[in-house]
Queue: 3 jobs
Job 1
Amino acid sequence: MRVVVFSAKSYDREFLGAANAGRHDLVFQEPHLSPATAPLASGAGAVCLFVHDHADAAVIDALAGFGVRGLALRCAGYNNVDLAAAARRGLPVTRVPAYSPHGVAEHAVALLLALDRRIHRAYSRVREGNFALDGLLGFDLYGKTVGVVGTGKIGACFARIMTGFGCRVLAYDVVENPAVRALGATYVPLDRLLAEAHVVSLHCPLTPATHHLIGAAALARMRAGVILINTGRGPLIDTAAVIKALKSGRLGGLAIDVYEEEEGVFYEDLSAAILADDLLARLLTFPNVIVTSHQAFFTHEAMTAIAETTLANLDDLAAGRPCPNAVKA
Ligand code: NAD
């Protein structure tokens, strides 16, 4: 089957190409999927999409018109696809529900440790010959309370690592995970988690219920000096409210791998361009903010697993078989 792979980078060619082993005709296209780029899928049996590809109702109608019979997401989240529109047009949507939850959880831990121990500042200081410690004071994670919001696959891995550090883990989820309770974590209402945690890490999906979950009201309930980590999705956090809390000192630190307006910025080399996003530019001025470019998933193991599952999903789409990784509308 001919498959047009949108938002393709060199690493997509490498990993998808290796997993494909010649079974499908993969056509790699750099642009994101949008109404303007949908015609690139003309004649394809399926499209393969990533987090910044938009498959809204208009795009799905266009894809169906070009003969596309299915959408294979090479990611876990599917908030960028109008599932109802896809169902109306009879287009199955598949995803990669789990690849390496460990890699994402470990990245969240890396962000937390770097922020707490000021590794990002120490790294550049010593390279300039400044070996002073002023401004680098951190705190022990041992004995601290860590709040995990969303305790699915990634949240559970993160909670396990935090218990290994000797932290007390408070958890919040709409569905409790017995494996997380078995770690010794305590499920509490979100308000209590926010009030008690020294560190809050977000691992829930982006849904209407979780949009701006951390806004002015939540920030006001949080412990002064709290560290906030977001490897979930950008809009879980109200960026303007978080900037205010950073300016007032209420928020002790912020480390994000995802950002509300990351599209068009993350995954691109803009080092020679003027950053047009004033909120992102402001965030980058804080010494206690770390931003990574949606890279938490980016490990060898995860890329291999993503490619293999995506190709298996494409096999099912090509054969017209039900796919175990189909997303329900
Ligand atoms: P998962 O489905 O295993 O777990 C998500 C958990 O969130 C579930 O337990 C669910 O019950 C819970 N949840 C749903 N609505 C909630 C709400 N309103 N409040 C609290 N909890 C709620 O998913 P996962 O594999 O653990 O991934 C979690 C999220 O991480 C994904 O949705 C995706 O957005 C994000 N992610 C980011 C990266 C990255 O590279 N930064 C990579 C993979 C996934």
Job 2
Amino acid sequence: MRCKRRTQTPMPIREIATKPYLDQKFGTAGLRKKVVVFQQPHYLENLLQAVFDCVPELAGQTLVIGGDGRYHNRDAIQAAIAIAAANGVARVIVGQGGIVSTPAVSHLIRLRQAAGGFVFSASHNPAGPDGDFGIKFNIGNGGQAGEALTDAIHARTKALSLYRIAEGARVDLDRRGSSRIEATEVEVIDGIADYAALMQELFDFPRMRDWFKRGGRLVFDAMHAVTGPYAQRIFVELLGAPASSLLNATPLEDFGGGHPDPNLIYARHLVELANAEDGADLLAASDGDGDRNMILGRQQFITPGDSLAMLAAHLHLLPGYREGLKGIARSMPTCRAADKVAAALGIPCHETPTGWKFFCNLLDAGQITICGEESFGTGSSHVREKDGLWAVLAWLNVLATTGQSVRQLAQAHWRRHGRHYYARHDYDELPTAAAQSVMDALKGRFAELPGSRHGDYGVTAADEFGYLDPVDGSQASAQGLRIVFGDAARIILRLSGTGTKGATLRVYFERYEQAEDRLDLDPSQALAPLVALAEQLLRLAELTGRKAPDVIT
Ligand code: VG1
Ligand code: CO
């Protein structure tokens, strides 16, 4: 038996005094704050200690750590390793350079049977010294901690007076290999390889290689965030796409000053490329931490809700999904296109609150195979996070397998299932009271609205969405307000849970059309009557003082 030296360690484990923090509450996806907030002495340490206190099984087990490469990523990772070591974690697995995308962290947790993982990211929120930072904590199934746990962590952060840390511990994040801090083994790994291997199990790589050989053209924009190296490995090295297929593929600490949010505003240049005469066959982008995706084809933007529905309709053609789909889920504000596909396939379609964590129980219980959100999130049972590159590969595989273009696939889909025109209007950085007043005013009209008519639309229901998890019976209340006009349309209102300044009000519009001559309308014109109606019903200009939304996606 080997004898462990326990005294005179070079990196003593210290208990350091901290004050309780009151603002460490997790939102829709982790905790997000300005970088300067995270840079306060003991702030991150306090939060991490609260996690270790609330998840005692991390001691003696494996912890995965990754991040999106943004400013403060490396410092946060060093702190997390030192605190993990002081809290008895047996093994820390961290991505080289601190780079691991959110879906790849989810996969690593599952692959290495870790007890949990940290993702340091504020997703698409701008980065840099004046930007945002964030942390997500994922549990052993690879999914984000649920509300019961994050509430317990929050309670703990408000009570802590000490945290434990292996003082002075520093790991060379750029060199792959193992080292030790006290009794903890720290493994710096290639954060791309295991994820790329998983994609090769799910998708038909030879067929996609062939698609490129036959002249198929892809443009993928990594927006200077985490997916650059993944795209390089998968599209260029494994699939043989020309290197010129990739835009902004080097991760930068400030994301190049940009806003890596793949949508019609922040990835506008892709829309222009798609509309160009000689546009590529598939154009796509991902966000800061690699979990979102935007899909376009030549002359055709695919809304996230349509992407979910169209992928659901074709998924059985792809190697990892030959057995067919068990079920589909979408977040409540996501358009109901997926419901039509589920009905046609004779499988259930679940409606969940916003935030990927609500899909995880359904995925774990084997009740769904694919799920998605209107916010450019799509994913499947392969991990417990939404997965941007997965969605791009799924589309690529569908194109390669069917031989059809994105536009042909979309049009055939709408002819069969009808089309859901869709848009989201965001009012950013509102005073909290103004945002709340819009919500309250609508709630105040819930009794009178059902049965009322407004132009072409009759209200069939007006309510606040709540969710009863069919797997564990947990409940989530106050998950958004809905005005439902039967199958024809919906207007939905929610307050964001990811912002770092003021309140963000989101208004979602959905209009369904089945008539052959209404399948190819200009989306913003198709939605104009509903937008006008919302202005009347919600008094947005009056209550917010804003003439128009800040962002339309
Ligand atoms: C937004 C989106 C939601 C998404 C969440 C996290 O939340 O609406 O659909 O799951 O961001 O996305 P909210 O509460 O601001 O509406 V991301 O790419 O973390 O990581
Ligand atoms: Co994200």
Job 3
Amino acid sequence: MTRVLRTRVELSQALAAVERPVGLVPTMGWLHEGHRSLLRRARGADATTVVTIFVNPRQFNQASDYTRYPRDEGRDLAICAEEGADLIWAPSVDEVYVPGFDTTVSVGAVAEPLEGAARPGHFEGVATVVAILFGLVRAEHAYFGQKDAQQVMVIRRMALDLALPTEVVACPTVREPDGLALSSRNVHLAPPERAAAPILHAALLAGRAAWERGERSAKALRSEMQRVLATEPMARPDYVSCADAETLRELDRVDGPCLLSLAVWLGATRLIDNELLP
Ligand code: AMP
């Protein structure tokens, strides 16, 4: 039986009676196969699965991105039930940010480059809401997608630094057959943009292929990804990165684990994707 809860109090009361371990899957709704894969992973490992559905205003650096973010709670609840989630917390904004709320969680260096630089305030919003969710749910495990690789790193850092008892589990990126990473924002793509969107994954795979051929110059790997992106006239790259997989500092030479990542505009929609080397 899936139960839908709205308030902090309802959630806490429901959690007091559940079997442990508890697995938490935080989402902003408009659920797709990527979210389903996190739910299944939680179901496989934890006795109780908690899904949160909350479009977090604090993590949007553009008001228009927040207002046009897709929402369909009825459909999301049906998907959670189908996947056997036990508890769904779908709160209002005021229930998350209680009256007088005045705390911001700000993670340091790992939150600065890439998405942090492109979207000021984004990771403060993410870290703050995830800290609230971790505090409320006190799950043994929380599941996040590798699709948002920097987000996983920011949350790991936060959980470690603040001694939060929830283990952060990263799960593989789920893709469409043509390679496009599933994302709630894909719904905004007009047909020609959708047709162009697999170029992100193609560019990352070209970067990986160059690395597999022995290329170790980070500049050369970035150029290879840029070259592939440039074959698609609709794609406007925001950044193309080849960074240390631990620190996210841009590399000169690739001697160890490395994150290839990119952000690309297609019309008014900004997509991100990444590939971890090796
Ligand atoms: P969102 O609802 O977009 O905030 O995403 C909620 C969670 O689902 C985050 O941990 C995302 O990284 C994860 N997620 C989103 N898209 C995918 C995907 N294509 N594959 C795997 N996980 C994903």
